[in-house]
Amino acid sequence: MPLPATHGAGSIPNPAHPTMPTPPPSSAPSSPRTAVLWCNLGSPDAPTAPAVRRYLSQFLHDHRVVEIPRAIWCLILHGIILRVRPAKSAAKYASIWLAEGSPLKVWTARQAALLDARLAARGHRVTVRDAMRYANPAIGDRLDTLQAEGVDRVLVLQAYPQYSATTTASVIDAVTAWTQRRRRLPEIRFVNDYHDDPAYIEALAQGVEAWWAVHGRPDQLVMSFHGIPARNIALGDPYQSQCLRTAQLLADRLQLSADQHRVTFQSRFGRAKWLEPYTEPTLRALGAAGVGRVDVMCPGFPSDCLETLEEIAMEGREAFLHAGGKTFHFIPCMNDSAVWIDAMTGLAERHLAGWDTQASNAPPTVDGALAQRLRDGTPPLSIESDGTVF
Ligand SMILES: C=CC1=C(C)c2cc3[nH]c(cc4nc(cc5[nH]c(cc1n2)c(C)c5CCC(=O)O)C(CCC(=O)O)=C4C)c(C)c3C=C
Ligand SMILES: [Fe+2]
Ligand SMILES: [Fe+2]
Question: One Pfam annotation, family name (predicted)?
Fold first, then answer.
């Protein structure tokens, strides 16, 4: 168990326990303060071409996202993409924008607030903050604020259930870039993925079941994941196999046979080969083949965003119906569903384990009480069967 910092009081002898330094007075912040940083991709600050250009420039300069040699890529990026794409993407963002901002940011902030409340209700003294890899609120700014608030332990959780270097490693890069600019560092933990976490699978399944309870069942359930370049898989990215595992676990949980579901990959960017089968051509093929109803869900996206609300729920629907399909449903992402917040809580608690996060007014756990005893310089006398320490 890590011992807490002594805040400079170490030179005063402690008569009760000579080998221990005297702890600070109990009113002082004697135990480390812990935060969870709930990180997502980020959105432009506004659905306008200039804001989208700034966002895309930061996003598409990330070496984790585009691995083409810089000199060539910068020519393409500045010469074509950042001239053409911002206006087109801004119109798409405008079609899904909420009064409070981008759906991705609104849901991510809400998830952070709900996780904060749930952890507090379970007796943890933990601050939860949302942070975005691109645009705002930036990861570095959030870490600065947390540190100014006295936080010295940070658990980095990401809104990417499946690991990819393009997303997960990029968030880790942003956090470690911040650490390189700071002298006094908090303890930091990262979670790489939770693609097979039973509570995550259960949250996905219950979202589907709730939808089907109201709207009936489809002929086909399409599970659409964000794509990445096929080359990344050949270079060792585990993303594809984690997506396929998530999909299989979900299909098993929903008791779907092989002909009742399929996996596709969406959001192809550029001309290179990405993970296949691609979502939109698949929807067109299903419509043309006379499949009456498809339901599409996006298990890799905990929050609805441009890629689900516009690309799937609008463009995907249009592609399927135009090709001859009869009925199209988009099943919303988990967003703020209670079962998803439960899954996030379990994930956070598992990875916070060993850090003393017990609030002073909460019933002490064995770990928490032992830590307090060590801080006070008093050895624990006995541990009751219910975990109470005297
Ligand atoms: C699983 C999550 C994601 C992976 C993997 C991912 C890889 C990836 N994305 C691009 C390019 C773009 N993605 C864009 C939007 C976007 N991407 C994700 C998630 C993953 N991306 C989300 C949640 C969003 C939506 C953000 C929002 O504001 O709602 C965009 C911007 C939109 C646009 O202009 O079309 C681009 C560009 C690449 C190149 C890539 C892997 C190599
Ligand atoms: Fe550049
Ligand atoms: Fe993306």
Answer: Ferrochelatase
Q: What is the pTM of this model?
A: 0.86
Between CA 55 and CA 143 the distance in angstroms is 20
Domains of the chain (ranges, CATH numbers) = 1-21+361-390 (no CATH), 33-39+109-194+341-360 (3.40.50.1400), 42-102 (no CATH), 198-330 (3.40.50.1400)
Which pLDDT tens digit goes with each residue over 315-324? 999 999 999 9
Cβ–ligand 1 contact at 240 (below 6 Å) = no
- pLDDT digits 0-9 by tens, 48-72: 999 999 999 999 999 999 999 999 9
How many angstroms separate the CA atoms of 95 and 89, rounded? Answer: 10
Q: Which ligand is closest to the CA of 166, given by its number?
A: 1
Summarize the annotated binding site for Fe(2+) as residue ranges.
226, 307
CA dihedral 87, 105, 95, 61 (to 10 degrees): 20
Distance 72 CA to ligand 2 centre (A): 9
Q: Which ligand 1 atom is nearest residue 160's CA?
A: 1
pLDDT at 363 over 60: no
**Which of 82, 102, 269 most suits a substitution to test ligand 1, by most atoms within 8 Å of the C-beta?**
269
Whether residue 165 has its Cβ less than 6 Å from ligand 1: no
Structure tokens at 333: 């992402």
Interface predicted TM-score of the whole assembly (ipTM), two decimals: 0.94
Do 221 and 261 touch, CB atoms closer than 8 A? yes
Ligand 1 and 73: CB distance under 6 A = no
Token duo for residue 13: 């002898």
In this prediction, residue 229 carries a pLDDT of 98
